[in-house]
Amino acid sequence: MHSRSTSRTIQREDDMVMKTPYLLAVLFIGSVTLPASGQTKPAFTSIFNGKDLTDWDGKPGCWEVRDGEIWCTGTSEEKNWLVWRKEQPANFVLSLEFRWDKGNSGVQVRSEDLGKWQIYGYQVEVATQEKMGLWHHSLLDGKHPKKKQRHLMATAGQQVTLAPDGNKTVKQVTAANQIKQHFKDHEWNTMEIIARGDTLIQKINGVVFSSVTDRDQEMSRKHGFIALQDHGKGCVVAYRNLQLKKFADTLSTKPTEFVATHLVATGADYYTTGPQQARAPDGKFKQGTKVQVIKDSGSYCAVVSESGVRAYLSTASLNPISASLNPISPSLKPSSP
User: Fold this and answer.
1) Domain map of the chain by residue range?
2) Are 290 and 306 in contact (CB under 8 A)?
3) Is 73 exposed, middle or buried (0-12, 13-18, 19+ CB in 10 A)?
4) How would residue 122 be classed by pLDDT, with cut points 50, 70 and 90?
5) Class of 33-246 per CATH?
6) What is the residue-wise DSSP string for 83-128?
7) Among 39, 239, 268, 290, which residue's beta carbon has the most beta carbons within 10 A?
8) What Å distances lie between residue 50 and 2, 68, 154, 242, CA to CA?
9) Smallest Cα–Cα separation from 228: which of 61, 59, 51, 102?
10) Does pLDDT of 192 surpass 60?
11) What is the band of 41 on the pLDDT scale with cuts at 50, 70, 90?
């Protein structure tokens, strides 16, 4: 894949999110989830067996299985989560059905386990029609300076981008009421959560409700637990048909040819190798420096220059980064092409 082609694809995704909810469902999936040539198309696998809570861990007495459904019993006065312990997926589509009856619940993804059935991270709200479409950060410390930016990340009809420094840009691309009408209280609804690279998308009954592209260097997470929330105080909600489709960290393992690019090394995003994370090398590639794409994670590409410098890159037009935020390290400065 050529980086320039990747740039056009990413830019198109950013521009198109939620302008036309039904059309987006086709365009977005087609642009980021189809496998590269020669790869096997990922398939959905069930993460709930319909019989018991094998692979799930919840506070005793708060969750139970009834007729092939996971029910929050409404007996707890305090928040707690039912955690899927088998994996901590990174790039995936989570598909499920839910029925909200009372209180407040949510679906957690890419989240951190704090112990005692407490989970910290991205959450999709499951509540009344008025509250549906909300992305927020669960259990964010009220004293944290970024609380206002992240506690309520996106509501119905919004496309939200969080910059590397945490600054938030909000686009209300579809009227909230127009989006919310597709969700029905006290009935079974379908939900899909798409997590790919920096972007999280929420779909309900086939309609994109909201999206978040999170490039915050301090707070974003690229993998973690899936969990269901019991908000306490009489919450009654049910889930069924929970299925997961995972994507590889790379879209293609075949090296691409060296091509001229207009990419900028962020030098600040995380470069992931297996379960370990390490900073990408600081350094700003000159315009026209030839690089080879060795890993494509969606909004960023891992590349290596002809001089051997490796870094994560983003397109300057998509995510411009100033020299002051990304100083050039003399030892890593690539040679002229």
Assistant:
1) 33-246
2) yes
3) middle
4) very high
5) mainly beta
6) EE-S---SSEEEEEEEEEEES-EEEEEEEEEEETTEEEEEEEEES-
7) 239
8) 44, 4, 32, 9
9) 59
10) yes
11) low
64 membership: H or E segment, kind and range? strand 63-66
More confident residue, 135 or 38: 135
> What's the confidence (pLDDT) of residue 302?
61
Lookup: tokens for 185: 């209280």
- How many Cα atoms sit within 13 Å of 335 on the Cβ side? 4
Alpha carbon distances (Å) from 255 to 34, 266, 293, 304? 18, 22, 7, 11
Rounded distance between C-alpha atoms, residue 90 and residue 93, angstroms = 10
To the question of pTM greater than 0.70 for the whole model, the response is no
Two structure tokens written together for 162:
């969080």
- C-alpha 90/C-alpha 246 separation (Å) is 8
Cα distance between residue 187 and residue 311, in whole Å:
48
Contact 91, 232 (CB under 8 A): no
Residues contacting residue 294 through CB under 8 Å, at least 6 positions apart: 255, 302, 303, 304, 310
CB 192 within 8 A of CB 200: no
Asked if pLDDT for residue 296 goes beyond 80, the answer is: no
Higher pLDDT among residues 326 and 17, named by residue: 17
